[in-house]
């Protein structure tokens, strides 16, 4: 089993109102969570990225008001206070360039002794594009075309130094990039940093099968996980790859209690914290596409139709047909007698694994044994102490059963993941 820690910054999982929550900017928060993950022998520490502060109803989204630090800068600092933990940065392939990013990633790999990873993301969002000189955006169909050539070009740059330390000129000419010259960073300890891909579309799955070492997915149920696992692993042969060359790691949440009943009570309370009355209205406004401040969050759902193609929220993806979502919400609210807030809690929050330490350990193991995942990226609801229960109470049981390592076997992220060093292509 592979385990990773996601820093729970600006997402709906995080509960910032909890008095145990600390800053998402102070280095001490990053350091504490990373040290906890390394104490638990996790494979890597994972940072998300946001290139523009999201907006809602013309104002900066509440979860973004304190800002978003740049991932690689934070990870370079964490390299100095950790020894074995992998360090994964989310960096956008739409609004960066291969030469500059390949240098930054290779530098992190050197500074960390071979622990760097790159989570490749794309954007078709003109709102984000306004933050950049060229502005605009890529058509959705072109995002992965650019990303695939971006990754291939970065690998050409990393391979422009031989394993014995000789630099050779590089030259790449393609539809997206034309670059040539001399790369400034020698071949790094891993050869290439580990490549992660996050995406569930058919294009995303194909890109992962062709180019990624890890795919970060949102499939949290056993059945959905098994379907996704079989689909993506089944695509690897077309690229001459073995099943173990791509690790599938869903993002999950865990709630641990002394017993299963206590854990269920804790999980319900966390869901209530995640969806305050204010957050319930905000979530509903994203679906309805219009202001709903006149509605009572503890009352019934709004009795109006959603506004199609609304731009009330900027920088966040509006998932699915709003009319279909509203119809589902109304049916659920009627069937269960739910208020607006209750419906939002029911539809937008979940904990993947809930129970006593032994229950959680058994369920995590079952997912891996039944080929629904190769491991998990844990997203705690508290920063920075949200992993403590898992590391202190669940990991020892996984180690005892042989499902998870007791010690790191190597020093690089590739060694943690069981991935071979890439063959040098001179």
UniProtKB/TrEMBL annotation:
Enzyme category, top tier: oxidoreductase
GO molecular function terms attached to this record: monooxygenase activity; oxidoreductase activity, acting on paired donors, with incorporation or reduction of molecular oxygen
NCBIfam families membership: FMN_nitrolo
Protein origin, superkingdom: Bacteria
EC number: 1.14.-.-
Similarity section: Belongs to the NtaA/SnaA/DszA monooxygenase family.
Positions of FMN binding: 90, 144, 201
Organism ancestry: Bacteria, Bacillati, Actinomycetota, Actinomycetes, Kitasatosporales
Protein name: NtaA/DmoA family FMN-dependent monooxygenase
Keyword Flavoprotein tagged: yes
InterPro entries with a match to the protein in the record: Diverse_substr_monoxygenases, Luciferase-like_dom, Luciferase-like_sf, NTA_MOA
Entry keywords, A to Z: Flavoprotein, FMN, Monooxygenase, Oxidoreductase
Statement: the UniProt record of this protein carries the keyword Oxidoreductase: yes
Domain Luciferase-like: from-to ranges: 22-335
PANTHER family referenced in this protein's UniProt entry, alphabetically: ALKANESULFONATE MONOOXYGENASE-RELATED, C2H2 FINGER DOMAIN TRANSCRIPTION FACTOR (EUROFUNG)-RELATED
């Amino acid at each position: 089993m592979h385990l990773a820690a996601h820093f729970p910054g600006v997402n709906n999982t995080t509960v910032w109102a909890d008095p145990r929550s600390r800053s998402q900017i102070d280095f001490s928060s990053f350091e504490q969570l990373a040290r906890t993950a390394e104490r638990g022998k996790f494979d890597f520490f994972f940072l998300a990225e946001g290139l523009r502060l999201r907006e809602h109803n013309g104002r900066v989204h509440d979860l973004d008001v304190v800002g978003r630090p740049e991932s690689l800068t934070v990870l370079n600092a964490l390299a100095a206070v950790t020894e074995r933990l992998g360090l994964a940065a989310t960096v956008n392939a739409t609004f960066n360039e291969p030469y500059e990013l390949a240098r930054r990633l290779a530098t992190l790999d050197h500074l960390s002794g071979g622990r760097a990873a790159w989570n490749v993301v794309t954007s078709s969002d003109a709102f984000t594009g306004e933050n950049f000189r060229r502005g605009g955006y890529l058509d959705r169909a072109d995002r992965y075309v650019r990303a695939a050539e971006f990754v291939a070009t970065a690998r050409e740059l990393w391979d422009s130094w031989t394993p014995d330390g000789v630099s050779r000129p590089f030259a790449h000419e393609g539809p997206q990039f034309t670059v040539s010259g001399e790369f400034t960073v020698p071949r790094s300890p891993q050869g290439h940093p580990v490549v992660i891909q996050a995406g569930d579309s058919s294009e995303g799955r194909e890109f992962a099968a062709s180019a990624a070492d890890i795919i970060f997915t949102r499939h949290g149920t056993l059945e959905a996980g098994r379907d996704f696992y079989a689909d993506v692993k089944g695509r690897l042969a077309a690229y001459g790859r073995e099943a173990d060359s791509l690790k599938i790691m869903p993002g999950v949440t865990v709630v641990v209690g002394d017993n299963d009943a206590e854990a269920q009570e804790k999980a319900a309370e966390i869901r209530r914290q995640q969806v305050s009355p204010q957050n319930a209205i905000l979530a509903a406004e994203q679906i309805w596409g219009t202001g709903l401040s006149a509605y009572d969050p503890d009352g019934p759902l709004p009795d109006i139709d959603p506004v199609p193609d609304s731009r009330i929220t900027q920088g966040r993806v509006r998932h699915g047909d709003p009319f279909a979502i509203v119809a589902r919400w109304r049916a659920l609210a009627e069937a269960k007698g739910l208020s607006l807030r209750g419906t939002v809690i029911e539809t937008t929050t979940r904990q993947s694994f809930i129970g006593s330490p032994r229950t959680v350990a058994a369920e995590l193991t079952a997912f891996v044994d039944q080929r629904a995942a190769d491991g998990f990226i844990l997203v705690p609801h508290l920063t920075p102490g949200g992993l403590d229960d898992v590391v202190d109470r669940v990991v020892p049981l996984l180690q005892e059963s042989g499902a998870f390592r007791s010690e790191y076997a190597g020093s690089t992220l590739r060694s943690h993941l069981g991935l071979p060093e890439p063959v040098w292509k001179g």
